[in-house]
Amino acid sequence: MTRFPQKPAFTGFNTPLRAEIDIVDVETEGEIPSALSGAYYRAQPDPQFPPRLGDDILFNGDGAISMFRFDGGKVDFKHRWARTDKFLLEREAGEALFGAYRNPLTDDPSVKGRYRGTANTNAFPFAGKLYALKEDSPPVLMDLDTLETQGYTTFDGKMTGQTFTAHPKIDPVTGNMVAFGYAARGLCTRDMTYYEVDPQGRLACESWFELPYYCMMHDFGVTRDYAVFHVAPIVGSIERLEKGLPHFGFDRSKDVYLGVIRRDDPDAKPRWFKTENCFASHVMNAFNEGSKIYFDTPVAKNNMFPFFPDVDGHPFNPVDAQAYLTRWCVDLNGNSDAFFSKEVIGRTPGEFPRIDDRYAMAAYRHGYMLVQDSTKPVDPACKSITGFAMNTLCHVDVAAGKESTWFVGPSSALQEPCFVPRSADSDEGDGWVLTLAHRILEMRTDLLVFDAQQISEGPVATIKLPVRLKFGLHGNWHAH
Prior knowledge:
480 residues; mainly beta; 6-stranded antiparallel beta sheet; 5-stranded antiparallel beta sheet
């Protein structure tokens, strides 16, 4: 008999959905802009079976992909599991065979050497396919219309690294997908791969280098001329896995590095710049002006991931975990690799930064992110969930140094925003922002549509799902 553990990761709003869903013409409040024509895809972890070891973290659930298709002022909804190797092997066995998050030492012997990826982190449309991504395996391809899984790809065998990021970038000039893989030669290795994939989906570049130390290399920055990698001390090791500890932990003793490689000479060794310990994960954008490289990322004084606790046992500190959008700058003409300037350019603590992707890799003005506003009320009935959740959508005007915000309410939580341009040639920031709102007390989810320049006015349309999606991670828009 299937029974999930009565633990926070599997109960209440986090109860596994375990369903595939089709809804035609979802109920809507307000008016969906007629120019919105395309599909919004997003990924969420949703375990097919109870965890093999009795408990687990949210990040280890099987990948499930949602698609909101906009056409003629209406929205259809489709939701499907990504049928990874892990999913199919466990479906055949009728139980979980893979153990703890990124710890193959805890797997059933029958699945030794098989892909452990769950495709649960990002849904990324590119070259006529949907890439369902998790950073510990190659990409999984799905059909953009049906969400049918087509299987793993190694780009006709040309990709020799074992992993592929969940945060690729599209170069608006070349159309290339720029990506990387960490632990590329195997579990907990320092080996990195740098990839460029051409607009037809063919691997055009794969080069190798090493990180200063093994870490969760979750995101990166790309400029017109450089790829930029921030090495933050969310570290792991085989020894941790052998002890049954979480794969990652935060190490306060380690420095942070920024590595720079030339895109026109990716086989050259990266140049590493060093700064003091901090936490940084997602990247808003990066760009270079001559030899100066600018890298915008939310930065916290300390660990933001309580599920990956401090390696020395320091308790999680929610105040030190608040991240502020910060601009890092390094100068390749400088004579010191220790040179590193920083400027806080955000006034409110937040994460999940996004931009108008047409302006990726170049100087930009408009950004969007989620804010955890501790001054706002939280409904007591859902404080355990929304107390640390993102409750406010924020528009950052980087050029003017201004922010505008919208509070979702005391019993709801927001998910990563996604910018959609009004047209292919509209001005930067002219369009809409999409974000999911989880209605905790109602046990269901809405998709909100905002005018990207009028965030504080609230949504212009609310697509009201009659079902509850789980807390997810990343998503993207694909125009018709």
